[in-house]
Amino acid sequence: MTTVIRRRRPLVALLSGFALLVSACSAGQGPANAAAVVNGKTITVDRVQELVEKAVKAEPAVQAMADQRKLDLLSRGVLRQLILHELIAAYSAKESLTIDPAQVTELSKQLAEPTPLPTDGSATADMIVSQAVNRVVDPNELARDYLSLAQIGFKQAAGLAVTIDYSFVSGGAEGAEGAPANAGSLREKAFEKARQMATSLDEASKIIEADIKVDNQSAEKNRTFAPAQAPDLAGSVLFGAPVNSVVAFQPNPQQAGWVVAVIRKRDLSATPDPKAPEVDVRLATTLGPRLLQATAQEFGVKLSPRYGVWDFSDMSVAPNDGETKGLVLAIKNATP
Predict the structure, then answer these.
(1) Long-range contacts formed by 73-77: CB under 8 A, 24+ apart
(2) Containing H/E element for 130?
(3) Which of 169, 174, 19 is nearest to 81 (CA)?
(4) Is the per-residue pLDDT at 178 higher than 90?
(5) What are 70-120's pLDDT values in tens digits?
């Protein structure tokens, strides 16, 4: 069985290490001075601002972001990590997750001594934000969180399989620097298809079947994915969204094309494919944040509008509704 969605080229690369794999969740508005409220616990605006100010001093590459008035990127990155910490704590308490203290100590030493980033403008914003977060969050706390994400991923990766019906929304030529030439219109086209499919299971089936008749290379029913067989999708919404939901997401933001899919089945005890690669720490940690989606829904996360909106599809904080990385919709009148 092939493991790629048709007409989807592989993602450019997996994130390069633990420090680049931090994600989290948020939604709504909390009490005064709350940047976010997670599982009833408040993350204050003061706490976020304190860490941002420390990052400006601790990481030289951040100064360039400050000069360009882009510290909002860092604020969202800091908040994302603080939220993720609370979600991990909630998951760990419920599932009795334990972490070896010796591993925490070993990893914290590595995190406390990051490789300096270049200050010549070659470092990307994502790299700078990740490095800055690592510099200002307590190394022991950060290490425990990263190890927890890996353990969460290892726990479910081997037996996790998701079955979907999907349609691929493609766009044509790429624009400058490999970006899709009509990225905005493709996004809206994918979102509109997702909204139509979310009206009912019958409507979703009709749309997929019609797309298959038009081009059976761009749509398919009953396709099953497992993280080890499709590692470039391990951190995607496919593995976190509930059954009977519709998702729209871009497998590779650098290339044209969106996937709109119905989550038909989510199996946690599937028989692993003996030919699939072994689950390694990078795959487990990529999958870990995505598996916290259910925790966020169960325990509750609220985000202050000053930081943007919760992007359920990306397990991250987006500046506004127009900049989310995707869409997740419950299908009407369908049992979750």
Answers:
(1) 73/125, 73/129, 74/128, 74/129, 74/132, 75/48, 75/49, 75/307, 76/307, 76/308, 76/316, 76/317, 76/319, 77/22, 77/129, 77/130, 77/132, 77/133
(2) helix 125-136
(3) 19
(4) no
(5) 899 999 999 999 999 999 999 999 999 999 999 999 999 988 888 888 877
